[in-house]
Amino acid sequence: MRARLARLRREGAATKDAAATRPPPGVPLETSAPSTPRARVERRSGPPRGLCATGGHLARLGRFGLDHRHGSWRLEEALDVEPADFALLTGDGSLAELDLAGACYLDTETTGLAGGSGTWVFMIGLGTFAEGPRAPGAVPASFGVWQGFLGDPAEERALLAECAERIRAHSGVVSFFGKSFDRHRLEDRMRLHGIEPPFDEVPHLDLYHPLRRLYRAATDDGRLATMESRLVGVRRADDLPGSFAPEAWFDYLAGRPHALEGVFRHNLDDVLSLVTLAAHLGSTTRERRADGSELGEPAAARAAGVARSLLAAGRRPEALVWLDRHGERSRRDGEAPAARRPLEVLRADTLRLSGAAAEALDAYRALLDGGEDGFTAHCLLQLAKLLEHHRRDWSAALEASRTALALVERRHVGGEFARLRAEAVGRIERLEKRVGRDG
Amino acid sequence: MDHPRSDSESDPLSRETAAPRPAEEVAPPPSAGGERRRRSTGSVLDLARALRADPELRDGFEHWRESPARPARTVALPERLDPRLAAALAERGLSELFEHQGRAIEAALAGRDVLVATPTASGKTLCYTVPLMQRLFESGGSARALLLFPTKALGQDQSAGLTELVAALGQDWHAATYDGDTPVPVRRTLRDRGHMILTNPWMLHSGILPNHARWSELFRDLETIVIDEVHTLSGVFGSSVANVLRRLVRIARHYGSEPRFVCCSATLRDGAEHARRLLGREVEVVDRDASPCGRRLFTVYSPPLLDPVAGLRANALEEARRLARHLVGPRHQTIFFCRRRTAVEVLTRYLKEAAGDLGLRPEEVRGYRGGYLPLLRREIEAGLRSGEVKVVVSTNALELGIDIGALDVAVLVGYPGSQASFWQRAGRVGRRGKPSLVVQVAQADPVDQYLVRHPEALFSEPRERLAVDPDNLVILSEQLKCAAFELPFALTEGAGADTTAADVTATDEQPRAVLDDVAFGGVEHAVDVLDYLAEESGLLHAAGGRWYWMADAYPAQDVSLEGGEADNVVILDAETNKAVGEIDREGSLTTVHEGAIYQVEGRTWIVERFDHANRRATVREVDTDYFTDAQTETEVRVLRLEVCKLRCRGEAAVEDPVLPAPLADEDAGGPVEDGDPAVEDHAVWRGEVHVTTLATQYKKIRFYTRENVGAESISLPPEELDTEAFVLTLSERTASELGLHAGSRGAGWHGVGNLLRRVAPLFVRCQPSDLGLSTQVRAPHFKRPALFLHDRVQGGVGLADLLFDAHRELLEAALEVVSACRCRSGCPACVGPPEQIGAEGKDTARRVLEHLARGALPRDAEVPAGRGEECVGADAGGGGGP
């Protein structure tokens, strides 16, 4: 047996843990960490500094003044926002009354992004303006951050129980990608210990999706690091990439020198960014910060995103206002006509659906010389529709339809081809009958 | 063992009717036209008569057998059943149960673990559905169940059945399949509200268990685990699944439940033993089938010998087509089972084309196999149930419990490889009160040919041993990774505190540490493996007698239940960069070395590059007139011998053979005295071996003419394998007497090995390809002729053990095959072609087998000291010799 295990060891050494080096499945959060040279990561031995042990687990506590600047924003700016924006931009009505002063700001560090009940949550950052729900009208005095830390796997239950209790004491949760990730990791571990997870009871604002919807086009990706630097001016110095976090914890548990100090700092920065990004998101439609200054760039992308959100909420007249703003801003920014087309087509469609036939006709006509693409075909067909039903100019409608068909057949434009083609053919058939009957 | 031939006494047709019809009436059908009408009369018995009367075919039927109609043995519904359940059953015509169903249901309701091992169509489904429903009534809808099926299709089929029953009971319980096809939004509902979750071992392994926290509702109330078709759980797959079940039990325990098992299976040789290895517990075995059965005819058909010298027989598929002339028609339903997918397509096409002559419409002939779209499969299944489909040609896809109703005629083209499969397939025919017919068409293969002469082997008690070894170190360590990810492991409290005084030998060692774990606690090497995973792999963190998963990984993703997958070589087309195939590690040596011709269904590619390290071969499609045949050298080194049985030359009279002295003696070179009763004749062993396979060169061989058009060498690193082997050795003296040392006759020894490997599936559930063969006329370790059959899985999954147990039966069957084969000097249907085993190979092999398969059985003997374990390095410990 010993010999067999020894052989197994030899075998194992060759294939040693291919699993650990496998890239995690597509989670869009910090998956492509820059290859920071190991030498740059600061390591030290012994337990992390400033930990206090209470209730059977470890935590680090931090407190910040309301005017603490994180990047170019102050924390207190989160106390003066329009919660209606959260509902509009996420499509989640339960966030219409979200009180950022009474919410907690959650970010966790885990041993991997692949998920599964075996993924540890070894650090839980929870920021809050108030301990517990805020009395109406009460003004918070500071911002506190509790960073629960799993110093020993045997303490996990106590740590998670404390975390659940803290979350439950707040009126909302703010996170970045937390609805898809952090929440599930915590729930898995809580259930494993028989702790009732608190998440069903509190509204949850996940900043990732609305920010991505608003600013994705203007930024490289939807990552937190990108958003915080573009929107709220955060520049991190010597940040430890999130992908180094599991290793830091493994090192610590194994008694090796570890980079946990960097993980604590990284987690703290994440929590503070949640506050300022929430403040930013809550200022979207008024486009001004609490002090009255302008929200800033990228303003064109924002206009498009707001318009889309308004359309999704069925608010066409307001959406048209934002679509017009988008047009102005993108022209001002010198954006290429081709890049502007999708939103211009959306504007024309919105006009048509709002019953502004004449304006829609003009809008579609203006879009016809943008190139031989699916948009042109779409515009031609919409034009034909308006010409037929509003102008009753059947021969012009027929001509537009035929031009559309010819275009579609000449250029197989995307996956839309079949649908556009069928629409053109149907319209031509009907129009030909009409023209024949009348002429 | 003496097998009575039973041809004449069980001839069903001679006793059939008072007025046998004249042969002219059943002459082969001439032309179309009124064919459909003409064929619309007569019963299955008439078909059998027609077969026997056909002058072209009748000589091929080597054996006829009839099993008479058998009435059902029934019992009343258990009194404990909820009246609503009893009423629903009665409404479906189930106002009483078959005896075996009654027993199984009683046992399950009493909270015992049950294995129901009865044939297809004996109503096994009811054995678990009734207890599940009853427990749902009794628990007020809280009892939950997890059901495992070996295929997705089966799970979906059963889910529909359960849902129907629940609807009939008017309850708000949910049965749903959870597999790769389950839409994500549905999954959550299912986790929280599914009473009966139907899934498969893969999904349980990589989807459910690693995410157990999300399934906590299910695990809290998990009362029953149903496993269907447990006879399919053997080999690497079965051994892996046994560990997945250990993981399942420990997760359930974590959430506070102690689920019981209800297992269903085809008839098994030793169901209790199989269940013990698979589940690690004793189960109540219910295996006396009490369902009724119509009169059933069996026949074994052997294709005519085209070239007796070369042992060449007519192609079985062609023969099936000839048989079809009699066996299909508009009045009854016929199923053909083929071994390969391509065979299904070819035969389906033949039969569709000939439909008119057979009195059928082409659309009444259907193919069926894995790879057809689900919708199409459902349509064919429905057609079979309704009777619209008259002929179906299938792979084993229709072997497992998909509901297609009962058909009339089954034609098995080639022996399906196991007795269980044979009966599963045969079980597809036989309607209540109507006769049915099963035709087994034999192929040119040792097992098929053995069965032609020993058809009783099909009908006797189950013979095959199932190999399951959940403690295989490789499988165990992979599964322990997954288990540790799911929950940490801990040692029992106070482990090591009390050392038993009696255990004198272990005084200087730590007392054995034992895991505090319901499932892995009793596993011998679990602690060692966990230590290894912590210290060497760095995947676990060991602290305070506990092991915690400590890696950024999701291990189940990388652990395959079939084993070896991660090591497979992908074969990529250089032009399209698409994969054209995949091959396992060992096979890659001979199949995708540079210069090899890789073939798939007639298309050929040449291998341009074999990236051995990255498991990737690049190929380019070519038109060639040759294929390649690579030669390998396999070296088997004995690491440790564990068990031995020995026969002495003076046999029979010796009551208690002393230890195998010659083994020790020959080292000293001392001659042994003739006639000494203690002198060894032959021995069989089981032990650990190290196998090195090196590809040396390949030959280019022209298609059809088989002319050798060149050879090139191969330079690839050798493949190494540590595994278990069954070993057969002859003493030098016996070998000389059998002529093994004369001239080129040594090659006959390899012929013996070929044949043993090929007949092994008769007694051990495996494919010949699961076994590696190596023969040596003078093996270095034994200094005498040795024949090794090794398990081709790293670490072995128990095949060697089973071969050791069954070795005498193997030898007897091998002797039967070689004696009866009509080839002159070896053919693929017996010891192998003469090019491989030499001109006198067949003769030598027969003599060796005659010697070994007759006379006294070898008896238990001690493994000689110093022979047992070879020193494999300083860290090996424990057995360096005296």
Describe this structure in words.
The complex is a heterodimer of chains A (439) and B (882). With 439 residues, chain A is α+β, with helices and mostly antiparallel strands. Helices cover 48% and strands 11% of the residues of chain A. Chain A has 2 domains: 46-281, 2-Layer Sandwich (Nucleotidyltransferase, domain 5); 299-438, Alpha Horseshoe (Serine Threonine Protein Phosphatase 5, Tetratricopeptide repeat). Chain A has helices at 2-14, 18-21, 83-90, 156-168, 182-192, 208-215, 224-231, 245-253, 260-281, 299-312, 316-332, 337-353, 357-366, 374-391, 394-410, 417-438; strands at 52-54, 57-65, 69-70, 73-74, 103-110, 121-128, 142-149, 172-175, 204-206. In chain A, the strands form 2 sheets. Chain A has a 7-stranded mixed β-sheet with strand order 1-2-7-6-5-8-9, sandwiched between helices. In chain A, strands 3-4 form a two-stranded antiparallel ribbon. Chain A is elongated and about 90 Å long. In chain A, 45% of the residues are buried. Residues 10-39 of chain A have low confidence and may be disordered. In chain B, strands 1-11-18-17-14-16-15 form a 7-stranded mixed β-sheet, sandwiched between helices. Chain B has a 7-stranded parallel β-sheet with strand order 6-7-5-8-9-4-10, with helices on both faces. The longest helix of chain B is centred in the first third of the chain and has 20 residues, at 235-254. Chain B is globular and about 80 Å long. The model of chain B is unreliable at 1-32, 496-508, 652-675 and 869-882 (pLDDT under 50). At the A-B interface, helix 1, helix 2, helix 5 and helix 8 of A face helix 18, helix 19 and strand 21 of B.
